[in-house]
Amino acid sequence: MPLELYFVYTRTRNSLGDPAHALFAHPCGPSTPTQGQLIHSDSPDGGRGYYGVLLWTDDGVLQLVGVQPRWRRKGTATALWRQACEFSGLPLDKAPARTALGEAWFQSLDIDAPLEVLNVPVTTQDEATGATARQLALDDKEATARRIVELLGKDPKEVLPYILALCAPTYEDAEEQIHRLRAERP
Q1: What pTM value is reported for the model?
Q2: Which residues contact 146 (CB under 8 A, 6 or more apart)?
Q3: Are 135 and 70 in contact (CB under 8 A)?
Q4: 74-118, pLDDT tens digit by residue?
Q5: Residue whose C-alpha is closest to residue 95's, from 70, 65, 53
Q6: How far apart are CA 41 and CA 11, in angstroms?
Q7: Most buried residue among 52, 94, 146, 178 by CB atoms closer than 10 A?
């Protein structure tokens, strides 16, 4: 069941210090804006208590789509993306660097976009506390990993085990799997 959300738009800076557009999804409540309402803010952090955030550039490149783990699988990322597309007038269908979870989300939106860099999972085990296994894991890890190998144009025999490791639910899980793979190399 989708959550009732309102949105806060602001200008901010990404992790490299470059200007970016930011849209935050907040839960609706008795003393908040109503479902789907868009609020403009001068605060670069979008306010406390948000469930998810989406950052994009002036030319429509998605730089971050993040949903807090216990609010995943409830339509938050897709609601953010639709609101940001409507607000910006851009398709927001480019994200050259993304996680395996981000690729699976792109697939759910029928977005077929080039992938230049596969990022490690950004969710830590501490952040995952309170989330269900389904909120953290991919529905079909093997299919997502094969799709990523194809997008990167790599030889599956060489990279598939590493790509599968990067499909782990948390940063620590991926790190552990990568260390194990490296230790097993001759």
Answers
A1: 0.93
A2: 156, 160
A3: yes
A4: 999 999 999 999 999 999 999 999 999 999 999 999 999 999 999
A5: 65
A6: 8
A7: 52
